[in-house]
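Protocol step 4 of 6: structure prediction from sequence.
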Amino acid sequence: MPKRILALAAVTLCAFAGPSLAADYKVLDYWGVGGYAHTSRPIANTYLDTLAKTLNFELTKTEDAKAFTTENLAQYRVVVLNNSTEMGKVLDTNQRAALMAFMKVKGVIAWHASGDVKGTWPAWTTYLGGELSSHGAGISTVRKDPAGLKHPIVAGLDTGRFDEEWYSYKTNPRLAPNVTVLYTMDEASCNNSCSPVMGDHPIVWVRNEPTGGRLFYSGMGHMDWIFQKVSLTRTMYKQAMEWAAATTVPIRQVTLSRSGDGMTIRSSGSTLEVELAGMGAHVLDIGTLDGRKIAVRSGAGPARYRFQDLEPSKVYTLIATTPEGREVRLSK
């Protein structure tokens, strides 16, 4: 008896691709630089090691820009840009494109000198919402911004006062698309020439990309104690990791929703449901275009199957094989 193939081909789904069995997800910590190399970078790495144990994620640390490929980034849920100065000098065109594509659908945490690209990567500056104009050191106060009072990253936090190298930005991040300011610097509180006056002086903000990506940026991270002793920043960066790792992009309804030919496909959040009606014995699998199987289900119809934890970073195929003899292809 001939077999019937129902194939969903060339569909962009999400793949939460393979963290280790012990970890909930994977994080890439990039601490490479194209300019000034902050001595706080290894201190921040140690902080991230501790955070990985607390939040149960697998941490990969690298200074190698070759980590920024579409294939490699697919395994990570969050990328940390750890004082990565002048990234436009060290990332080539393809590496920049891979990181920008990642940011549109997953989580990025960046601090301090990751906002210092010196004009080498305008697209990053536009996405971030601000670029370093100048800086100065001193003890100053940061305060919660009214725009972000209810954001989970600042839950349980309040005002902080500490010594840091404070950044001013060429443009006000508050005016950038999809940006919410979480903390501002109180310029009047500084005991030194902390930085040139901005007036309204955002120092911590987030960006929610309409396609699902989440970006957190903090201007604080020059001094070692930001990652060692300052409870406000240590807690904030922990909560930023939890927020950035919680990205969930809905599967494209237009691509996946279909009813007919004995098969109904529905998507909700990161879950895909496939319902087979009256199709007899069958095998249903979801896999990648290069032939790897992600999940396989088999049984006798009618039946309903759920594929969960899907995220948009890879192209998948959905194939139902039945003994009924006709082929239907669903594609973009």
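Step 5 (inspection) to follow. The first helix runs from residue 40 to 55.
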